[in-house]
Design goal:
Belongs to the class I-like SAM-binding methyltransferase superfamily. RsmB/NOP family. One of its GO terms (molecular function) is RNA methyltransferase activity. May act as RNA methyltransferase. The active site is at residue 386. The chain is α/β, with parallel strands linked by helices and 449 residues long. The chain folds into four domains: 5-131, NusB-like (N-utilizing Substance Protein B Homolog, Chain A, Orthogonal Bundle); 139-182; 188-237, Alpha-Beta Plaits (2-Layer Sandwich); 240-447, Vaccinia Virus protein VP39 (Rossmann fold, 3-Layer(aba) Sandwich). The chain has 20 helices and twelve strands. It has helices at 5-20, 24-34, 39-54, 56-64, 76-91, 96-110, 113-126, 131-138, 146-153, 158-167, 172-182, 199-204, 228-231, 240-251, 270-282, 293-303, 348-351, 354-374, 394-401, 432-435, and strands at 188-192, 208-209, 216-219, 235-237, 260-264, 285-290, 311-314, 327-333, 375-385, 407-410, 428-429, 441-447. Strands 5, 6, 7, 8, 9, 10, 11 and 12 form an eight-stranded mixed β-sheet that branches. A four-stranded antiparallel β-sheet has the order 2-3-1-4. Strand 6, helix 16 (293-303) and strand 7 (311-314) form a beta-alpha-beta unit.
């Protein structure tokens, strides 16, 4: 392979994201395979690609301060190489000469010699300051415009900074901790699917039990596929926060009968597999509903091997095809902006727009009404999002419940035993900087009549 393979792989991912709207978490493994990268080289390529994507907005501002033309007038491969070089110069321990020379080599190979000379000049100028120096030069002052300063310094769009600030109650120190946590790589967490695998088996293969989920294990390094339980579908990759909200629904008390559970919006199937395993042990059945056929196939794969009589249904969850009050427990993991998983999806913060929230909120509200219609009196609904944005979490629940006297909020905190810093309740908001999980939100609702 010509050139520097880790950087070539990282550059390929940047180009795929920029030019083809690819998802980095899908493009990265393919690039690693093409370049036959493993171990430290694979880790370096991943950090360079993911780190550059996370910091893209800030790096674009820095590059813009060092060129004489608008960024949209630059050759796109040149701009991606400048972003990659800026990341190495401003956010890694890569020596400056190596960051510049390897980035210039990329431009020489993928653009032309003239562009390489330009890249050399721009990157040398970028390397004259560290990130704090560029913040002092380009960002608003912290005192005059905290949102603008933090947006630049921690590479988040300003609207996301404001949303996180609102969700954290205006606590400046916590806000900055949350922004920093979004820029730290997320570890790989596995879920042992009940009745099919155990945490002890995963630990024996090199994983470490998670702090709170009795089914979770953290994999410190290597591909999850190297574990037999993962290859065989008896365990799967699933954030501990995702496990905890599903387990809260499963453990909160419900008067019998308790044998029919519903997972709305169930793709790609991680929570469905966890719930199905628990329900099989109780002699019950799970219906997993998913609107999109390709995601329904993923659910079927996740449930394959579970001995229970569970069903996957392709359909629109806002228009139920089942009778009212037909289920004892309902999980609604609602489609959302995914702002709670920014550390896992490095490009998503720059793709999402404030307008996305309003459209999703309408869908979330409709789905929650459907979930409440589907659960029997005395049964439970878990409303879950992987977002801390108040317009997707507590205010959705507030709006749907307004004027209804047949639903009560249940304090969810006791059903996440041992988990600290859960606030005043009754709802739960997990955070990467507090809990080391994705920022999962959970509201438990009981239909009373």
């Amino acid at each position: 392979m010509k050139g520097d393979s880790p950087r070539e792989a990282a550059f390929e991912v940047l180009r795929a994201v920029s030019a083809d709207d690819a998802y980095a978490n899908l493009a990265m493994p393919a690039a690693l395979r093409r370049h036959e990268l493993r171990g430290r080289d694979a880790a370096l390529a991943t950090e360079l690609a993911y780190g550059t994507l996370r910091g893209q907005g800030t790096y674009d501002s820095v590059v813009a301060g060092c060129v004489t033309r608008p960024l949209e007038d630059l050759d796109p491969p040149l701009l991606d190489a400048l972003r990659l070089g800026a990341h190495q110069l401003l956010a890694t321990r890569v020596p400056a000469h190596a960051a510049v020379s390897t980035s210039v080599d990329l431009v020489r190979r993928h653009v032309n010699e003239g562009a390489a000379r330009m890249a050399n000049a721009v990157l040398r100028r970028i390397g004259e300051r560290d990130l704090d120096g560029w913040a002092a030069e380009l960002a608003p002052s912290r005192d005059a415009n905290l949102t603008g300063y933090l947006s630049f310094r921690h590479a988040h769009p300003a609207w996301i900074v404001r949303a996180l600030n609102d969700a954290l109650g205006g606590d400046e120190a916590e806000l900055e901790a949350a922004l920093r946590a979004d820029n730290e790589p997320a570890g790989v967490t596995l879920a042992a699917r009940p009745g099919r695998a155990t945490v002890e088996e995963l630990a024996g293969a090199g994983a470490r039990p998670t702090r709170w989920s009795p089914y979770g294990a953290e994999l410190e390094s290597g591909s999850p596929a190297r574990l037999a339980a993962v290859r065989e579908g008896r365990a799967g990759v699933q954030d501990e926060g995702s496990q905890l909200v599903a387990l809260a629904l499963a453990t909160a008390p419900v008067q019998p009968p308790d044998e029919r559970w519903l997972d709305l919006c169930a793709g790609p199937g991680g929570k469905a597999a966890l719930l199905a395993g628990l329900l099989t042990q109780r002699g019950g059945r799970l219906l997993a509903v998913e609107q999109h056929e390709h995601r329904a196939r993923l659910i079927a794969q996740a449930l394959a091997g579970d001995p229970g009589e569970h069903e996957v249904l392709v359909g629109d969850a806002t228009q139920p095809s089942w009778p009212e009050a037909d289920f004892d427990r309902v999980l609604l993991d609602a489609p959302c902006t995914g702002l709670g998983a920014l550390r896992r999806r490095p490009e998503s913060r720059w793709r999402r727009r404030p307008a996305d929230v309003a459209g999703l909120r309408r869908l979330q509200s409709d789905l929650l009404r459907s979930a409440l219609w589907s659960v029997r009196p005395g049964g439970l609904v878990a409303y879950v999002t992987c977002s801390p944005h108040l317009a997707e979490t507590v205010t959705v629940v507030d709006d749907v419940l307004r004027g209804r006297d047949d639903v009560e909020r249940v304090d969810a905190r006791p059903y996440l035993p041992g988990v600290p810093d859960l606030g005043d309740g009754p709802d739960v908001q997990l955070w990467p900087h507090r809990h080391g999980t994705d920022a999962m939100y959970l509201a438990l609702l009981r239909r009373t009549e």
